[in-house]
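Quick check before the chapter quiz. The format below is the same one you will see on the exam, so make sure you can read both the input and the output lines.
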Amino acid sequence: MRKVFELCSFRFIMKLAVLFSGGKDSSLAAWIAKKEGHELGCLVSIVSKNVESYMFHIPSIDKVKIQAEVMGVPLILRDSEGVKELELEDLEAAILEARDKFGVEGVVTGAVGSVYQASRVKSICDKLGLKSVNPLWQMDQIELLRELVKEKFKVIIVGVAAYPLDESFLGREIDDEYINETIKLREKFEINPAGEGGEFESFVLDCPLFERGLRVMGFEDFGEKNSWRRELEVE
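Here is the expected output.
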């Protein structure tokens, strides 16, 4: 399976669109692509109305606008009703716009282990004559978190959806202490440390792609028991 979704060719330089959620995985994937010499032609973000979307990140997704501004990269933003499979049509339309408007040759995703997500993006890319590039595919999840710290990403948790996670995790920064805690959670509760199973959602406040860091000016939390999300106000 790794061969199917390998980062499809960094052997030549491409202009790429980034399937961007504002979270750690898509941001790290974009940074790796840029470090390899590729041009980030645009970001592609989908705002889904379905909080249970199989494809798209939900918490604070509307804040990708300010992230795009501090990255200095154009943003294609589309709304979606979030109906399973039909939401892929919205994604395809956005990727088509990226190809036609910005001349991108491929699409970067932050897929780590979700065959559902990676295979569907690859199918769209194949249809549109684009490369599907997955720098994080099957990366060890602890290694991924440590790479964020090493590369000086400032990432906070904005969503949880698994026992024993609760509202107290919202706003936590991914640092060495957090990583050690997630290792213990994996051992005791079989929770994916990087949230690949949807256990965690994240938001990037600063990273090497940003011209300046973002500040949290306020927030509102929604949820109950072990399912929570935080909507941020940032500047």
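If your answer matched, good. The first strand starts at residue 15 and ends at 19.
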